[in-house]
Write a structure and sequence with these properties.
This protein is mainly α. The chain contains four helices and no strands. The protein starts with a helix and ends with a helix. Helix 1 packs antiparallel against helix 2, helix 1 runs parallel beside helix 3 and helix 1 runs antiparallel to helix 4.
Length: 175
């Protein structure tokens, strides 16, 4: 038969076991909740970093598109000046460019170099490099024919670049 002392301890023992199991369960839930919150914070930081990266790439590509247009415009002006002078003197490339145009060419070339280094698309970076090389060739052209070939090649590359940059911009997710 059960001793009355054993019966008195039973409720106390179940209370202690219930309290201990409840405490263990609470600790486990807290730990699990903490893990979930930590994982959510990491995911949020990664998401925000990706958003900033996408915004940076978007802004950079837009700036590169604008810079390419200005670069081509300045090169076209320089080429036009050489063409007009050639018609007068029949000598190619001996005229010095004005300071303002020369500075614009320098500034846009430097800006394109900087922007190109930030673009993720390798083909785009390579085409900008080719465009900048053709700019150098255009400035050093020994004949009208060589200069014309360079300016035409620049226009073709610029068209391809514009297409690639447009594709890159469209591929950037907006959230």
């Amino acid at each position: 038969m059960a001793d009355s002392n054993d019966i008195q301890w039973f409720p106390v023992l179940t209370l202690i076991l219930g309290f201990a199991s409840s405490a263990i369960l609470d600790l486990w839930r807290d730990h699990r909740s903490s893990e979930i919150k930590s994982r959510e914070k990491i995911e949020e930081r990664e998401y925000l970093a990706k958003q900033r990266q996408n915004e940076f790439q978007f802004d950079n590509l837009i700036a590169a598109q604008d810079s390419i247009g200005k670069f081509l415009r300045a090169n076209g002006e320089a080429h036009h000046i050489d063409e007009m002078e050639y018609r007068k003197s029949k000598k190619w490339g001996h005229l010095q460019l004005g300071e303002e145009l020369n500075q614009r060419l320098f500034d846009e070339n430097a800006l394109l170099n900087k922007l190109s280094s930030r673009i993720q698309n390798e083909e785009c970076r390579n085409l900008i490099g080719e465009l900048r090389t053709l700019h150098g060739n255009l400035n050093l052209a020994k004949s009208q024919d060589d200069a014309n070939k360079n300016i035409i090649a620049m226009a073709q590359i610029a068209t391809r670049l514009n297409d690639i940059i447009g594709q890159e911009i469209r591929s950037i997710p907006y959230n």
